[in-house]
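no rush on this but wanted to send it before i forget. theres a chain ive been looking at and ive put its sequence and its fold in token form underneath. please have a look and point out which stretches look like helix strand or loop to you. thanks a lot i owe you, the record is right below:
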Amino acid sequence: MGLGNRYVAAALAVGLIGGAAIAAGPFAVLAGLDRGRWQFKVIGGAVAREVCAPDPLRLVQLNHPGAPCARFTIEDAADHVTIQYNCGPRGYGKTTIKVQDPGQIRLDTQGISSDGRPFDTSYEGRFAGACAPPPR
């Protein structure tokens, strides 16, 4: 194979590999997470909080639950994702989720909460089971 053909073959291989990454979709690392109730503990702290996340993308806005926010992907890698979001007058944030396994993550988040207070917190997150059924 000539030198020019090697470049073409390499370019095709890179294109095929890149195509596979695109086919996996955005936030593929989050797609592999367990869905349901997650327990978060501030790293170095003892107090835990629980969050129901039937969609792991919900974990990105831990300090802005349910707020409609515009999202911008800063980094989308095999083992972590960093997303910046803006909720208009309700505040904004930037969150990095690093997946250690489907039931354990590290979540680093910082920004301004809806009440105007800054936050900058690192959590250890563990899957805790199914979300409680809605009250009747």
